[in-house]
Specification:
Number of strands: 0
Largest sheet: none
Order of helices and strands: HHH
Structural class: mainly alpha
Strand content: under 5%
Helix content: 55-70%
């Protein structure tokens, strides 16, 4: 679902090139509501081709940063939730 990863079995598009990445994004729009949402927003703003891909990149980076922050927060919570041994080594 979504975008095929470079080198994956389902990847029939050469995503090593800009045109290949563009085709992968367009193909991914068939299965990814996120990509469709971004394209819809871009079309409603009457963005040109370059602006559409800037919007897609921006959205991807924002969501990636949000995911990274959640992951870091969960790591912190796990560290804080670990039981601490007393001096005798008992929990």
């Amino acid at each position: 679902m979504g975008l095929a990863k470079p080198g994956s079995v389902e990847d029939s598009i050469d995503v090593g090139s800009i045109d290949g990445m563009r085709r992968a994004i367009l193909q991914g729009a068939h299965t990814s509501s996120l990509i469709r949402e971004c394209f819809s927003r871009a079309q409603s703003r009457l963005l040109n081709r370059e602006e559409i891909y800037v919007l897609l990149a921006y959205e991807a980076l924002v969501r990636l940063e949000e995911l990274r922050q959640v992951r870091e927060s969960l790591k912190q919570e796990r560290v804080q939730a670990r039981p601490v041994a007393d001096p005798d080594g008992h929990f």
